[in-house]
What we know:
Layout: H1 3-16, E1 33-38, H2 43-50, E2 58-63, H3 74-84, E3 90-96, H4 106-115, H5 120-128, H6 133-136, H7 143-155, E4 166-171, E5 178-182, H8 184-189
Amino acid sequence: MSQISEIMEYNRQFVEEKEYEKYLTGKFPDKKMVIITCMDTRLVELLPKAMNLKNGDVKIIKIAGGIVSHPFGSVMRSILVALYELKADEVIVVGHLDCGMAALDGEHMIQEIRNRGISEEVLSTLEHSGIDLNSWLRGFKDIKAGVTGTVGLIKNHPLLPSGVPVHGMIIDPNTGALDLIINGYEQAQSK
């Protein structure tokens, strides 16, 4: 049985047995927060448990490395939607130790892209269009600097509402221990 068949069979039983009822909640986050974190598999259940979150408490945006790389990209738009339309009133950026993005090498990934069948013609077209794939696909060297940079990008965004605290944390994906590296309440008070 394929994975998608297994998912569909499980889902049929899940709905039939009304397992969804224990997850019913509204679309507005009860704790009025939006969290930006990494898509690392170790954080799927660990992060909410380590932060004492349950279904419906927060909006969670998962992206590679938990890094917002473009001030007007879809991730920043999602943060602004959470703040303006979905009643969130603070932001937490959570990076993690042993992040795969810290070791991501653009040249290696470009070779993997070639290995998976993307033609040189496509790569050349992108390069001639001004897209530097090596830079775009490169990770970061320091998780703390990555979190700090993302907090700064969000905090200094021209569309961020005044007074919104933007926090930065690093989680240990083995133990769930959180390290608060930027207290957004202190930054909000100092302005």
